Amino acid sequence: MSHSVIPPIILNTTLSPFSSRDHGHDNLMGASSDGEAMTLFLNKSGARSEETLRRYEREITRLTAFLYLELGIGYKDVRLKHLQAYLHFIQNLPQRWLMAGILPGQPNRIMFRSSIKSGKSTDQVIDVISSFFSFLEKNRYTLGNPASSLVRSGEKVARGNTIIRYFYDNEWQFIKECLEKLPSATPRERVESARTRFVLSLSYGLALRESELTGHTCSDIHPDNDDGYYLSILGKGRKRRQVPINAALQRGIIDYRRINGYSGLYGDSFPLAPKIRNAEGVITALSARGLRYWWKSFIDYCQSKATPAIKHRLQDLPFHTLRHTALTHLARKMDIEDLAIFAGHDSINTTSQYYHAEASRLKKMAADHHI
DNA sequence: TCTAACCGTAGTTGAGCTAA
DNA sequence: TTAGCTCAACTACGGTTAGA
């Protein structure tokens, strides 16, 4: 393995004066080294937005580190096989690439947090690499674009095959039992138990995203024109939707508000994800981080009561599991168009993921299907 | 019409800090 | 003491845009 020096990463208008691989000035951009070529590319791409610059800098730095440290080659020597090797590499990273100390000159920089998944994430890496080598080719820095033949997976998991983290029926039954048996011996435990029931029933009942739960209050509840109520949710992509609040959920909200000295269902800023501690008598909302902290505590409690099999399954299930579970259950009652509206999905392709839960049903139905 | 290129943002995680 | 906070740096996902 080679230990060539990586070209320094210098952004904005400052050009790198140094690279271990000087290729002369036989190109249209006047770059004399890989470092300069990289900088010129990032200057061009970074002009679009800070986010684009950040992503491009990260991907090109990673690729360059791989080329120099693992293969010992520069940009002009890169061929398709090297890029294919890189994609395999980032999907199966060795441990040392997940720790600091890889990049000379930046000893604290961690190159990867984890291996990159195949599919859309790897495709995004290919996008950047392809754009980079296209730039090098146009400017005659390289003879061709070795990335032009890279195949994006375009991978979209076939309907019914996504791995979605949701509670299986027996697990969901267990979760509900845990909810019923939450400790309530002390005042503190009673307060925490009541909040857990409140937050869980709202999250599940309305299939809310984490940000939607922490970002809305009872002031977002409104009466409809049919003696009912709905929650007006500003969701992902700044899209607003109205989700009906059924009678059972209404009662739950009113009960919990009463415990906390509020009356009625709506009309004030009582949060949907309340903190237990109040600040100067006012109950404010948990942050997203706070919500996860609460979620972990609840799951820890459930795990302490679970059988080994369920305990293992509950491990690492995030808060978002609740939304998946809720939508999975609703998918049994609603048609996909209605469910998409309920969930706030623009496309039913997204909603169709929630039909994964029916895999067991499909298995049963297909059991006798043979010649 | 197709797809490379690009973008916005939700979700995840860890470090370090604060205030009840 | 510790629940819960902010901040930062990421990955994943679901798109849109632009140009061939």
Summary of the model, kept short:
The protein has 371 residues and is mostly helical. It is built from 14 helices and three strands. GO terms for molecular function: DNA binding.
Strands in their spatial order, largest beta sheet: 1-2-3
The whole-angstrom Rg is: 27 Å
CATH homologous superfamily title of the largest domain: Intergrase catalytic core
Which CATH architecture of the largest domain? Answer: Orthogonal Bundle
Helix percentage:
40-55%
Could you report the average pLDDT, rounded to the nearest whole number?
Answer: 70
User: How many DSSP E strands?
Assistant: 3
Number of structurally distinct domains? 2
Q: Which shape, going by the Cα principal axes?
A: elongated
What is the number of helical segments per DSSP (H or I, 4+ residues)? 14
Largest sheet: 3 strands, antiparallel
Distance separating the two termini: 56 Å
Strand percentage lies at under 5%
CATH fold type of the largest domain? hpI Integrase, Chain A
Which CATH class of the largest domain is shown? Mainly Alpha
| Order of H and E elements | HHHHHHHEEEHHHHHHH
